Every structure is written in structure tokens, then in C-alpha cells.
């Protein structure tokens, strides 16, 4: 039977439990129709004397505090990899949980809450919060320069808690120009957000393109202006809205379950090129690759129904660690899963030493990079894209070399070559 979690459905603290549950195979359900104020009833106060959400009901009684709830769920699965496999992993997971809870969360909340109208906005207090947050993000960035995840080589509970604590920052406060200073934190956050078990809970997450505005002080002489710059009269409902605050701020989650429209690429005129045939030929050709696969590719290629694109990673200078670079490319290909019916790709990690260059070749259905890929796969914007001019023999030859993993490639050794098919 599912454990019941009391919280609004976009509460970032409840996400910790829900994501941990996905990883652990534990059934957790949000209490249906959680309402503002439900956390102030005498029954609720019996479960959590401070009257805050989330609270988890278990067969042995209620638990409050979101980290404790997530730990409980994690421990329901014996030897859960979310807790690592050695004592030192466990200690480091706890270390990063504390870091996420003491160095990241309060600073984001001290920046966020006054701007939401849940507290007095005082510029020096905000400045101090941002400066402490930057210090923490700087340290995190240093750690993540050499580590894909916080501890070991897989997602742990520490990653779940930290990502949830970064969530409000990325979605409401920390624009691209703020986070660009912490590129490894950016890469880390989007890697986690795009893990299937995170996606099931969080849906689509978009980085805010502006900092949540400061609520304007209502001036009796200018009532209209005040209402315009502080919409939805949030401050008025301050006390009552507290529990449902994330539900109020995360309209995008509410919109998530839209009916799926037909992919426009399915509506294109039929092509003589059957993508699966090319993928089969590519996979089955073991010898004479040039004569068989490459020749076959150009025989099949339909320049009207498909287009070829070169991509170049924009931040190659950051590719200082081989396995981190390879993981980054691996993550990109995982996230391209949604385009499998419409794309084929080769991604090369080039160089015999750091910094490694990441370059690729993609074949897409249609004449443009599909819009849904640009919208859904954040990696796309990390690359410069250039359409291949197949009338240019040099570009055509580059296509051949990329399909073939030719080494040396442009005079350099290949560290890795990955195929999306
Ligand atoms: N440390 C707590 C924080 C809980 C918390 O602040 N909950 C907010 C909503 S995210 C709440 O219930 N606020 C209502 C109130 O303060 O009365 C946790 O991690 O669970």
C-alpha cells in the first residue's frame, strides 16, 4: 500500500521524497487535493507540531522534515544504492545533504521568500544571502569539475536533496547570467533534472530568464500601479498561502499533462530514405565501412527529407577530465532519446589529452533541427550548429569521417566516439 505524503503537488521539499521513492521502488502518493490551511488543523498538528509540510504517514506513525522523510524512504529498500555502498560513501552523502540544507537552501530561501512577499524585503539581507550562496556554489562548482555526481559514479540521496534545494533558485532567481559563473553546477543540475526518475516527478523544468521581481510597496496614491507590478495579490494571502507556496509558484507543473499533439515531422511528405534501414546498415557493417556503409548512406540520403548538421561544443575549455567529458556526451545522447524516430548522430570526443573537444554530426528528419528537440533537450544550446552543405566535397568528406570514426580526426586522436541510432 502506498505511503501518504501531505504536501502541495509542487512543493520542492516533497519532491525529495517522491524522487527517492521512484529510485527505491517505494509507493508514495500525495494526499489528494491538499488544501491551503490543511496543515493547521488539529489532526495535522498531531502529525507535525510545527504545522509545516511535508509530512509522511507511515504504518509506524508520521514523520516530518523533508530530509528525514527522504532518508526513511531510501532505507525502506535494503542496501539502497542511493546510500552508496561503503561507510565513507554514506558519510559523504550525509556531508552533502548537510551542505545542501545549510549552505544552499537557506540562502536561496532568504533570496526567494521576501521577493515572493513571504517576509520583509531588505536589500542588505538579500545581498548577504546571494553572497553566501555564491560562496557555496563556488565550492560546489569546484567539486563538480571532477565529479559527475556528488558521491561516487551514480545518483545518491545527496543529489536528490541538493537538486531539489537548487530547484527554486534555477526556476525563479538564478538566471543564465548568474549560473554561467558555475558551469559545472549548471551541467550537474540539468543532468539530474533530466534523469528519468527526476523527470517523472518534476516534469519539464526551465531556467528563469529573469529574477523574481521585488514586490512593490503598495502606495495608496497609486493603487493601480502597485497592483500591476505585484500581480495575484500574493502578500495579502501571505500566512495562508505559506504551505501551498510552491504550488502557487510553479504554474508550469500544473500545465504538464497536456494532450500530446502529433509530431509535425510525421506530417512531412514521405521520404525515400528509411532511417531504420540506414541505422541497420550502419550497425551491421563490420568491414569495408567506406565501400558498404558510407556508400550506402549516400545512396539512401534524401536531401529533401533530411538534413545533416555539424555541432561543436561551445565550452571545450571545460572538458578537462576525460570521464566527465564522456559522461556529458553520454547524457546528451540519453536526452536525445525523444528524437530516436527522427535522428541519427555521431559524437566524437577528440584529443589525446585535455581539454578534449566534443564535435558531432547529426542527421535530422526535415530541413531544420526539429523544434521539439531544441525545446526539450537543453544540451542543444551548449553546441554551435552548422548545416552541412553537401555540395561542398570537403564537408561531405568530414561527414564520412565522422560516421566512420576516422582516426586521427582532424589531426587528433579520438578519446571516444558515440553513436545515437
Ligand atoms: N525544514 C522543513 C521545512 C518545511 C517548510 O518550510 N514547509 C513550508 C512549505 S515548503 C510550510 O509548510 N510552511 C507553512 C508554515 O510555515 O506554516 C522541511 O524540510 O520539511
Unique bound compounds: glutathione
CATH domain class of the largest domain: Mainly Alpha
Number of domains: 2
Gap from first CA to last CA: 40 Å
Number of strands: 9
Within the largest sheet, what's the order of strands?
8-5-7-6-9
Q: What value does the Rg take, in angstroms?
A: 25 Å
Report the biggest beta sheet as strand number plus sense, adding barrel if it closes: 5 strands, antiparallel
Report the oligomer: single chain
The low-pLDDT segments are 220-258
What percentage of residues falls in helices of 4 or more residues? Answer: 40-55%
Going by helix content, strand content and strand pairing, the class is alpha+beta
The name of the CATH topology of the largest domain is Glutathione S-transferase Yfyf (Class Pi), Chain A, domain 2
Q: Provide the β-strand percentage band.
A: 5-15%
Elements, N to C (H/E)? EHEHEEHHHHHHHHHHHHHEHEEHEHE
Q: Judging by the overall fold, what is the CATH architecture of the largest domain?
A: Up-down Bundle
Overall mean pLDDT? 89
Shape: elongated
Structure description:
The protein contains 18 helices and nine strands. The chain has helices at 12-24, 42-47, 66-75, 87-116, 123-145, 157-173, 176-179, 183-193, 196-202, 223-229, 238-241, 245-249, 251-255, 275-284, 289-300, 322-335, 371-376, 393-404; strands spanning 3-6, 28-30, 55-58, 61-64, 306-313, 343-350, 357-365, 383-387, 414-420. The strands form two sheets. It has a five-stranded antiparallel β-sheet with strand order 8-5-7-6-9, sandwiched between helices. A four-stranded mixed β-sheet has the order 2-1-3-4, with helices on one face. Mean pLDDT is 89; it is low at 220-258.
Amino acid at each position: 500500500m502506498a505511503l501518504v505524503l501531505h504536501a502541495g503537488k509542487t512543493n520542492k521539499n516533497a519532491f525529495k521524497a517522491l524522487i527517492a521513492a521512484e529510485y527505491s521502488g517505494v509507493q508514495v502518493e500525495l494526499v489528494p487535493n491538499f488544501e491551503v490551511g490543511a496543515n493547521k488543523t488539529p489532526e495535522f498538528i498531531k502529525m507535525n507540531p510545527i504545522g509545516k509540510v511535508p509530512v509522511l504517514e507511515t504504518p509506524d506513525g508520521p514523520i516530518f522534515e523533508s530530509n528525514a522523510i527522504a532518508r526513511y524512504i531510501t532505507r525502506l529498500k535494503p542496501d539502497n544504492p542511493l546510500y552508496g555502498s561503503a561507510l565513507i560513501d554514506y558519510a559523504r552523502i550525509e556531508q552533502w545533504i548537510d551542505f545542501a540544507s545549510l549552505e544552499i537552501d537557506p540562502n536561496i530561501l532568504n533570496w526567494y521568500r521576501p521577493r515572493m512577499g513571504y517576509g520583509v524585503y531588505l536589500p542588505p539581507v538579500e545581498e548577504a544571502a546571494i553572497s553566501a550562496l555564491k560562496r557555496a556554489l563556488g565550492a560546489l562548482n569546484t567539486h563538480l569539475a571532477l565529479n559527475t555526481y556528488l558521491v561516487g559514479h551514480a545518483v545518491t540521496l545527496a543529489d536528490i536533496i541538493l537538486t531539489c534545494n537548487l530547484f527554486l533558485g534555477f526556476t525563479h532567481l538564478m538566471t543564465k547570467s548568474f549560473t554561467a559563473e558555475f558551469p559545472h553546477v549548471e551541467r550537474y543540475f540539468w543532468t539530474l533534472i533530466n534523469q528519468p526518475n527526476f523527470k517523472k516527478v518534476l516534469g519539464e523544468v526551465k531556467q528563469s530568464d529573469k529574477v523574481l521581481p521585488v514586490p512593490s510597496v503598495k502606495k495608496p496614491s497609486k493603487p493601480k500601479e502597485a497592483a500591476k507590478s505585484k500581480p495575484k495579490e500574493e502578500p495579502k494571502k501571505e500566512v495562508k498561502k505559506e504551505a501551498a507556496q510552491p504550488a502557487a509558484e510553479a504554474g508550469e507543473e500544473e500545465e504538464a499533462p497536456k494532450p500530446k499533439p502529433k509530431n509535425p515531422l510525421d506530417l512531412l511528405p514521405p521520404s525515400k530514405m528509411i532511417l531504420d534501414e540506414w541505422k541497420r546498415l550502419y550497425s551491421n557493417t563490420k568491414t569495408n565501412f567506406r565501400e558498404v556503409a558510407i556508400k550506402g548512406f549516400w545512396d539512401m540520403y534524401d536531401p529533401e527529407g533530411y538534413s545533416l548538421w555539424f555541432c561543436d561544443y561551445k565550452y571545450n575549455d571545460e572538458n578537462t577530465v576525460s570521464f566527465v567529458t564522456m559522461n556529458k556526451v553520454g547524457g546528451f545522447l540519453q536526452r536525445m532519446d525523444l528524437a530516436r524516430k527522427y535522428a541519427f548522430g555521431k559524437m566524437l570526443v577528440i584529443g589525446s589529452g585535455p581539454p578534449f573537444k566534443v564535435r558531432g554530426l547529426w542527421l535530422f528528419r526535415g530541413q531544420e533541427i526539429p523544434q521539439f528537440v531544441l525545446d526539450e533537450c537543453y544540451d542543444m544550446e551548449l553546441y554551435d550548429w552548422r548545416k552541412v552543405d553537401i555540395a561542398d566535397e570537403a564537408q561531405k568528406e568530414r561527414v564520412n569521417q565522422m560516421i566512420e570514426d576516422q582516426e586521427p580526426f582532424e589531426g587528433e586522436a579520438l578519446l571516444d566516439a558515440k553513436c545515437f541510432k
